[in-house]
What we know:
This protein is about 60% helix and about 0% strand. The strands form 2 sheets. Strands 1-2 form a two-stranded antiparallel sheet. The chain has a two-stranded antiparallel sheet with strand order 3-4. Helix 6 runs antiparallel to helix 7 and helix 40 runs antiparallel to helix 41.
Amino acid sequence: MKLARKGIDVAVTLCVLAGLSFCAGCRQFDHSASKAIAETSEESIASRPKEKASSSPVPPAPLTSVDRAVLAKITERDAKNLAGCVWIRSVDEESETRWRYPQLDDVLSRPVEKRPDLRLVLADSDANVSANAAIALAQRGDAAGLDRLAELVRTPNVPLPMRCAAVEAIGMLPKVEKPLAEAETASTKKAKKSADAEAMRSDEVTLRLQELVDQYGTVRKDKKSPYMAELHAELIRALAKRESPSDDVRFVQALRAMRPEPRLEALLAWERCEKGELPVEAVDLRADPDYRVRGQALRTMAAKKHPAAFTHAKSALHDADFRVRSSAIAGLGLIGDEESKELLKELIVDRAEPTRLAAVAALVECKFEKPLWEASGDASWRVRQKIAQALSRFPNAEAAAVAERFLQDPSVEVQLAVVRAVDSWPIERKGPILLMAMGDKSTYNARRTAARELADAWKPAESFPFDGPPERRAEILATLVSRFRDERPDAYVVASKPKEAPVARPHASDSQLAEIERFLKTENRGELRAYGPELLDALERLRFERKALIPDWVYSETLPARNTTFAAIDRLSSSDASQRRKAAYDLVEIAEKGPIGRFAFDRLCFVVTPDKTAVVWQAALKIAEKEGGDSARELTYVALSQDDPETKRLACELLVSIPDSRNAALLLPLLEGSNHDVTCSALRALAVSGTTETLPIRKLLASTNEEIQYEAAAALVALNDESGKTALARLAYARDPKVAAHAAQKMGEYPDPFFTAALVELLDGKTIVVRAALESLPKIVGDDVSLRKDDRKLPSTSERILRWKQWYERQASAPRDKQTK
């Protein structure tokens, strides 16, 4: 009896709540606004994937206690018992809905008849329930909870992620042309009275966002609305979906924000804006202390085709942070003019692999394919893979020639990238490539992928047994090739390989792989020694694809007799120190002709690791620089622990070209060493590591060695530590002219107006210092004021110095003149 009465009470309570929410909705919304909401909600729902239609509308499910518990949560504890918001940020930055509540998503992913009606709980007595419901509704295009969302953003005790999710949800709402609420706040009325006629016609959702930006986008003296950069950035992002930056001054104001997050979102908004000129505030951010903002400023300038985009992108190629340099290279691809293309041609042969990778992406962006094909023989498999992926953009004969060559590449990843790239080509062009990839020279993954892709476009290919016996595969492939030629005689044109194409290493078939594996298990040394040229490929595949352990006798007996690289590596194990040194020199000579390959390098790392010979380690590091990859990084980490200072220095220099936050933990202890060269190299590597632990670096600013002071200051500037700028400017007065010149040059790599005064002072220094200052000043100012259009010949150095000093005096006196007036 008591249970029955309790059930009746719960039902009555639910009915009352539903009635209250309905009445509240009637009081809150006028008829026209409700109609607008309904229309826009239907439009939003129509744009989503349609569910299975039914003859009659399905009523939503009642709100269960389990669903209410999900809606009532705003925080929860993780496995470590740490409290966190239930709204989490998605890893995918490009996703429209970046803020998600996974448990609520699960509830709303049910069929319609099992999904609760969130509108019924917008007026719930539990603020958390109504807040979560409002966000979820807005993410699905329903503006019924707009007032609740605005209130949620303004609630200070709500976790910041949830407030950000509410802002994002507001930005996702469709346009509502009439105000939703009859009872407007005094601030809203005041804003509308001061707005012009155009603003009065804008939708209510945009007005709400603008009000929130005005409230949370600046530092307020009354401290009633404390400034939160993350919230400001989210508001700018949401507003950018509805307003053009050229039509709203709030985007310009965000470019001047005190924190980098709003500046970054404002730059992104300007990049997507198709109309209006880029404001000077956006251009000035190319010298921002934050590397993200500097990089985005360069991309925005390039995307908007700003007149100075090329100049600043070229200057940023000397930035100490590789991420900024990468953005500059990407900007060159967006600019796409002849100057940019010529510069990218130089960068694609740069010694650093990350630079070459960025240059490949930029060349693809500007559709400049010739340098790509010329670089298809790059020593790095990652670069070759990137070029292979670019083949999808160029379905022509030249690209087909490169695709055929890549199908015989020793890297499995490159072969697979080719097969996937040509899938977007027309069948007439991709058919021959995929048929070639189905042969025994390709790896199993490439053969399987090629067979499936060709079968999707050409039905006869379904008969190919990609995992069948080699003889059967060869028989059916020959039939398919003949049939394809008969059906498309004009399309089947085999591209000729370029003369400079490297000779591909023979690939082992699956049967050969099984045979060699059997020889290894039975230690059949004679059969293995007499095996054909496919042996090396088979052993590499066993080592890396199947993670098999290759016996030592293979490296010491079988491979040295048939491969000079493995012969030299084997001699590194000699007890004779002179033999080891001679082997190290031979390996360096072999590596200079081309990469030794990951199989040989893997063995080299194994042999070198326990060795203490400095010459051997230095040779191994030179080879590691060419090979790259995780094995090279791990070998470099071991080299940092060697006793030889030169080995440590080479390892640090190698880590400069392999920037990673993990490097810092091993580099920081080196700063306490006594070797000057090692300390300087470690500082250069730390500068690109992205570490936030800068205290050990700051301590070196007090060093008696000016070169160490310079490297420490340069590293701090690169790591966005404010003490670095002051220290770098102070080094303009260094006793050593070389240090002062280096400092002047480094200032040009960070075009910050802060350095202008120091560079002008350097114009009175030694010749080497003056040259560096004259080179850096235009990068900071944006123009070389010492060169004039009416100059019939290049002015002398003394004349250029005089013009810079006169310009600086005019700049310095300008504020005083204004005050006098």
